[in-house]
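sorry for the late reply, my laptop died twice this morning and i had to redo everyting from scratch. anyway the thing you sent over, i finally got around to it. pasting the sequence first so we're on the same page, its 128 residues, then the predicted structure underneath. double check i copied it right bc i was rushing
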Amino acid sequence: MIGLCLGLAGVVWAQLPFTSFTLAWNHTVEKIRWEEDYRVTAQGLVLGEARVRGNGAGMEIPEDAFLENGSWHYRRQLSPLQPLKLGRTPQAGDYQLCFEGRCQAMSIWVGAPDARQPGIELWACERH
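ok and here's the structure:
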């Protein structure tokens, strides 16, 4: 069965039994929330809808986005990501993984962001 792996350079730090999730974070400068919905497939992580609550430095809203409930909603056509690489430092704050109607800090599964390890990868993997 497929699931979501978190780690770096193919080394699994945590394995989660989800086939879909939302990745959420606050922009480091503008402090505006971003959310991206992913499906976990055998080919990798497939980005579905994304949402952002505003714009600012490095946060241009795509032309085809629409405003609903205070967020700009849009879709990007990307090939499956395998892995999805994320920067993760104490200064930027932590990402949240949302599933089954609730969000939790990524640190629950992989520890707090650490300047000595400023990145993490997410990928589709076979659960054991």
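Residues 2-126 form one domain.
thats about all i looked at so far, will dig more tmrw
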